[in-house]
Specification:
- This protein is α+β, with helices and mostly antiparallel strands.
- It is built from six helices and seven strands.
- The protein has a seven-stranded mixed β-sheet with strand order 1-2-3-4-5-7-6, with helices on both faces.
Length: 173
């Protein structure tokens, strides 16, 4: 792993094939979608094409390991209604993130922690985010451990106590 190189780049149309594969994998869908509803290529295009074209407030990225796509990451600004529901002030700049590794053989190898840390650094340098939040399912202990390693803290339970709201404050430079 020490010689492996992770890279995060903007998602392109050529990545839809990877997304369709990943979003049809039960291990990915267990915490990112619905395990009983794998994505078709058409569903992937419908969901991600506006993001690739810049027509969506969600910024989508592909994670590469040694130049091969292995995962997906996204960030988006949290709106005022959601901020208030989560207990934040309206004048705070809050971003949410979501991500997954698409190949279950790469789970539990430390790549998720590297991905999230690199993504946090990218967000810090390219946005005005003051707080970054994530909301893993309470049963997703692997993701929760990863987020805690990256500096996130559990804030509270949300979504009928099915998810943790976790947050990290970005440092002001």
């Amino acid at each position: 792993m020490l010689t492996d190189h992770l890279n995060i780049r903007k998602m392109t149309e050529s990545d839809y094939v990877f997304m369709a594969k990943w979003l049809s994998t039960k291990e990915v869908l267990a915490f990112y979608g619905d395990v009983n509803s794998p994505f078709t290529m058409e569903q992937v295009k419908r969901k991600y094409e506006p993001r690739v074209r810049g027509e969506s407030p969600v910024s989508s990225f592909i994670v590469e390991l040694n130049n091969l796509p292995i995962g997906y990451m996204q960030h988006y600004k949290i709106n005022a209604v959601e901020q208030k529901a989560f207990g934040y002030f309206e004048n705070q700049v809050i971003y949410g993130i979501d991500q997954f590794i698409g190949d279950p053989q790469l789970f539990n190898k430390g790549y998720g922690t590297i991905m999230v840390n690199d993504f946090l650094d990218m967000i810090h340098h390219t946005t005005d985010a003051e707080v970054i939040i994530v909301d893993p399912e309470i049963s997703n202990s692997r993701a929760i451990r990863c987020y805690e390693k990256c500096g996130f803290s559990k804030v509270k339970k949300i979504n009928n106590e099915n998810n943790f709201l976790m947050a990290i404050h970005t440092s002001i430079s």
